[in-house]
Amino acid sequence: MRIGIVGSGHVGGTLARLFGKAGHEVAVANSRGPETLRGLVDELDGQVRAATVEEAARFGDVVVVAVPFGRYAGLPADPLSGKIVIDAGNYYPERDGHYPELDEDRTTSSELLQRHLGGARVVKAFNTMRWDHLREYGRQSSAMQRYGMPVSGDDVDAKRRVSDLIEQIGFEPVDAGGLADGRRQQPGSPIYGADLTGGELHERLGAP
Ligand SMILES: NC(=O)c1ccc[n+]([C@@H]2O[C@H](COP(=O)([O-])OP(=O)(O)OC[C@H]3O[C@@H](n4cnc5c(N)ncnc54)[C@H](OP(=O)(O)O)[C@@H]3O)[C@@H](O)[C@H]2O)c1
Which of 6, 11, 137 to mutate for ligand 1's pocket (most ligand atoms within 8 Å of CB)? Predict the structure, then answer.
């Protein structure tokens, strides 16, 4: 599969590493331009290339957004139209500035991203685990108990395809409901940063 990644930091860089290793074609972008990504791309296995944000968005069948939440309004909606967009981001007001609709729990950060991107199919995933655990905790043997990864979204097919990707890098996808349910995997929720197995995560989430 072709995977675009917008954001090349802790989370974006880690997912570029994991998806490249899993055999996917990856195009990764940051805010400063492809020439600043040479070091990262050179050290990664597989077919990983540096791109502009626009190129990474057009390249991917699936595009990961791994930038600070406060930057979401700058993401280009046109090239992401029709794409599956994985929202790995979290809202931290001290970093991102205050959004009253989030502070008052009237909506979720993923719903705001979905509204901005219009034609994309947004799925929230990879936001609950620390980047270094994400890098290290995947288990390729199904004989080993896997860490769970919550997946929320309103498009069933998009969620299934993201769940397949999660399995390929060694985690157990766990259905966490729709985008509005994304609040159950936000900072401050009981599963956030908890590093639970798939079974424990199912139990803690209960029915979506
Ligand atoms: N760190 C974690 O353990 C962790 C775990 C789960 C989820 N998250 C969430 O994931 C998101 C990313 O976190 P991170 O720790 O990976 O951050 P990070 O290491 O600071 O990396 C952020 C990346 O976003 C890029 N970026 C910023 N604005 C951009 C824009 N307008 N267009 C394109 N790229 C842009 C930056 O590019 P430049 O360097 O060129 O500016 C950088 O590559 C955040 O929402 C965070 O809350 C973090």
Answer: 11
The CA dihedral of 67, 132, 121, 160, to the nearest 10 degrees, is: 180
- The CATH number linked to 111 is 3.40.50.720
Q: Count CB-CB contacts under 10 A for residue 113.
A: 22
Cβ(127) – ligand 1 distance below 6 Å? yes
Q: Select from 15, 17, 28, 31 the residue to mutate for testing ligand 1; criterion: most ligand atoms less than 8 Å from CB.
A: 31
Q: Is the CB of 11 under 6 A from ligand 1?
A: yes
- Tokens 């999660």 locate to 166
Residue 197 reports pLDDT greater than 80: yes
Question: What confidence tens digit (pLDDT) does each residue in 132-151 have?
Answer: 999 999 997 767 799 999 99
| pLDDT score recorded for residue 207 | 59
Domain count, the chain: 1
pLDDT at 45: 87
| Segment holding 48, helix H or strand E | strand 48-50
> Could you tell me the residue range of the domain that residue 44 belongs to?
2-205
Q: Exposure pattern of 93-104 as b/e (b: 16+ CB <10 Å)?
A: eeebeebeebee
Buried b (16+ CB within 10 A) or exposed e, 70-81: bebeebeeebbe
